[in-house]
Every structure is written in structure tokens, then in C-alpha cells.
Amino acid sequence: MVSLSPAKLVINPSPIFISNPTPQNPFFFFFPICSPNSPFFKSKFSSSISCLPKATNVTTSSSTHQEEEEELQVLSAVRSKHNDIVIVDTPNSRMLLLDSTHNVHSILNKGLQKWTGSYWDEFASLPAIVPKGPIAIYGLGGGTAAHLMLDLWPSLQLEGWEIDDILIDKARDYFGLSDLEKHTQGGGILDVRVGDVLSPSENVSGKYAGIVIDLFSEGKVLAELQEVETWLKLNDRLLPDGRFIVNCGGIGRESDETGHQKSMDDAWIQNSTIQTLMEAFPEKVSWKRMPERNGENFLALTGPLPDLTIWSSSVPGPLSENVKQWKLCESSS
Hints:
By secondary structure, the protein is an alpha+beta fold. It has 9 helices and 17 strands.
């Protein structure tokens, strides 16, 4: 999950929004880019949306807009028991927006490019530092991370969990999820599971080599993940030397009780989920933060800090440099 706001867009630095809800159309959506240079657009919700690809005030004349318009299309907008689900198509990608915040939970690039430039890419570095065995994704969404992980690690056995069966149906229709449910040439596959992954009935010991955790509701990390007991129970599901890699969202608080601004080295203290992880696994949590242009999400990794040189040489593409940014959680106080 990445957050959108009128001030910035975290997948790409181009905030786009829809406003002016009506009784027939009671949604207020924030949409991501339709081109890298698009600053924003404003329109009523419809099946076809115009995007301004240049820095243009939304009050510019309609004739100017027509010259600069690039069309987006809302492919599906439904409400399930768990989510408001909106799927948006752009010339270069397709995006999944969820719940009342309409944050972006998945993106699928068109063509052969699977890199997103956001936190989903970071999840694909996990197989290089965990023992051999299945890897779970808690919070599968549209399958963005699963697409890249199976592309880079074609023998990987993935188990993807999602609580919303309607969302999974939409992901199969619009995000190619069903393709991942077939064996790759390397024997890898995604096994999709629908249900509450935090249910005690799923507490099976030693099942996974690693778990990717991307669990959000209404734009916030699930409340259960702010409890130490939850993490200790989830840890039992890991094989020896297994790890979690976690999307911890954004800042929980800007400063400590004294109002002192934290240094860059202990900026993780601003994030409540990482604080909880540190309570559960003292001295065995590492962190990094995505750049502003890519969302500023905090990420956490459990277990000893890997040898970054070896890790870097074990992963392809941009991950080779990205993994060098991980740091052990340490407080300067």
C-alpha cells in the first residue's frame, strides 16, 4: 500500500485526484500518474478520465486541456465486504485502489517491465537471504510483488494471502494473477489463499522460509501488527533462520516525548510498527526508508543484518544497490 495525497504521489511524484462527489457518485478518489510529468488532474468520477501531462492549473481553459489530455480509464469500481475496489488503466500501467482512502495497493506495468520503483521491488530481495522453502505474501492485493518475485526467482514456491475474495477475482481478471497460479518453467508457482491470515487456525509452526507482510486497512497498518504478541505468534510460522520483510507504512510520530527531532540514523523510531518489531525481536530488526519520490514507506527486516556485499551480489537489477541501504535499528540516545 502506498498513500496518495494532494501534495504528492508516492509511486511517482505526480499527484492526481478526483473530487466533486455527487449523490450518484459518492466517491472521492486519489489517483496515481498517467505520465511521469503529470502534476495533477481534477474530474468527476467516470469511466473515462482526463489527465494533464504538464504542470497546468486545473482552472486552465478547456481548449488548453484538450490539447494536453491523456486518457485514463476506470475499468472496475465495486464495493465488497472488505473494500471499495477501484481498478484504473493508464497507457503504461494498471493500478488497484482500495478502501475509503483509495490508496494504491498494486500496480502492473504493461509490456515486459515488472519493476515498479516502489517498495514492492524490495520484497523481491528476500529469497536471497532466507533458507530454501516456501515464501508467503500476507496482503497479496493484485499480485505486484508476486509477479516480480516469480520473474526473478522462477522456482519460488509462493503462498499469497488475501482476505477479500472479490478482490482476488478482480486481480485474476485485470492483473494477470491467474497466470501466476500456473507453474513457471522453473517450477515456481503462486498458491492463492483467501481468508484471515492472522487467524489462530493458521498458526502452523515452521511452514515458511520467509514472509512478506503488507497488511493495511483504511490506509493504516493493521492494528494487530502493533502488538508484540502477534509478531511472536507469526514468528513460529517461520523455519529456522526465516525472516519477515514488512511494509511498515509512513511516520507514526515525528519526535520523541521531549519534542527532539530524531537523526536520520534513528528515523525508524518515528514508525510505530518498527518500534513494535524491536520489542518483539530486540537487536534483530533492520530498516530502510524509500526515497520521497518512491513513497517514503518504512520497511523492516527481521533477523541479523545480512552481509550487504554478499546480498547485493545475489540479487539482480536495481536491487543490487537498494539492499545496501538496509541498517540495523539502533538508537543514538
